[in-house]
Amino acid sequence: MRIAYVADALLPSTTANAVATLQMVAAMGELGHDVTLFTPWHDGRARDLARLRSEFALNGRFTLRYLPFIAMGERLRGSYFAIAAAAARLQRALIYTRNVRIGALAAHLGCRVIVESHNPLNSPRQMAAARELAASRCLARWVFISDRLRQLVATQVSLPADRCLVAHGAVDLERFVPAIDRATARQRLGLDPRVPLVVHAGHMYEGRGIEQLIEATMAIPDVRLFLVGGTAADVARVRARAGARVSVLGHRPLAELPNFLFAADVLAMPYTTGTTTSDRVTRSIEWASPSKLFEYLAAGRPIVSSRFPALTEVLIDGENARLVDPDRTDELRDALASLIADPVTAARLAARARADAEAHTWRARAQRVLSGL
What we know:
This protein folds into 2 domains: 2-166, Glycogen Phosphorylase B (Rossmann fold), CATH 3.40.50; 173-357, Glycogen Phosphorylase B (Rossmann fold, 3-Layer(aba) Sandwich). Helix content is 38%, strand content 16%. The chain contains 14 helices and 13 strands. β6, α6 (147-154) and β7 (164-166) form a beta-alpha-beta unit. The radius of gyration is 21 Å and the shape is globular.
């Protein structure tokens, strides 16, 4: 099948939007589809597709096309949306996009459209586009990253139930194969194998629970905490508050991340009620399907996570993770300490987590989204 994936994110970048877009495009190519990725022209664009594929560990084939557009302030507005929809239309392909306004424009041009939603509708223009798209015969499928998000959008727009699909986030399992044991991972990183280690990977925006995680971990004797990822500003902010047993490592290449996860005794996901998306404004935890959740599953280590509606669609307390109430540093501390002190329970949760990861590969996700089309 010929597919035109129309992105509205600047590619490449380390944002969750950009990484997930590249992984999904590559997965569709791996399934044998003829995929063209359209994305906005910018100074940091990839000039070497082979290097891009290597940096983000992309296996499937696809074509990358940058589209020029008229800048309107700092955001990508209607000029790019219209240009991208028209360019995709010329491909005579199924249009795939995470932008409901692009989807509505493509449907207006008579294209079959898949739209993938990661947030509720948050502007009058999005609402208008969503209503048009939901009523269009050109809508092939509307994909939501969690059932909770589907429920929220259904309160905003009358959704065609027979064309809605929930597809949680995913992971490239090949990056975690072969699995390595904790001792080998620590040897590669130059770490003491005897010291208990908690690891958090991902962004460290305000509200993501990093401060609570530091407090909880430092209340457990002899435990070290590794924080992998984050922007330069967030790294500086967290380092200013971190103690001697906290290592704030900043961004690491994608290929290095499995070693840090494999080295952990416990992987932490301490989201708070104040968690936002990358815009630092939109509160997202109720419906989010974070990338690191699926990387944690793939690493086969015990997980301690905050309990929120979308997360509990994947994580089950006592089966593949320990779940704690958000904003409760004491519960977070107790959960981390209990798993460090109880290796039998930790191993049981870890084994189930790794088994559950098998259902959440990018290839499986792409196949499910495109099935029947």
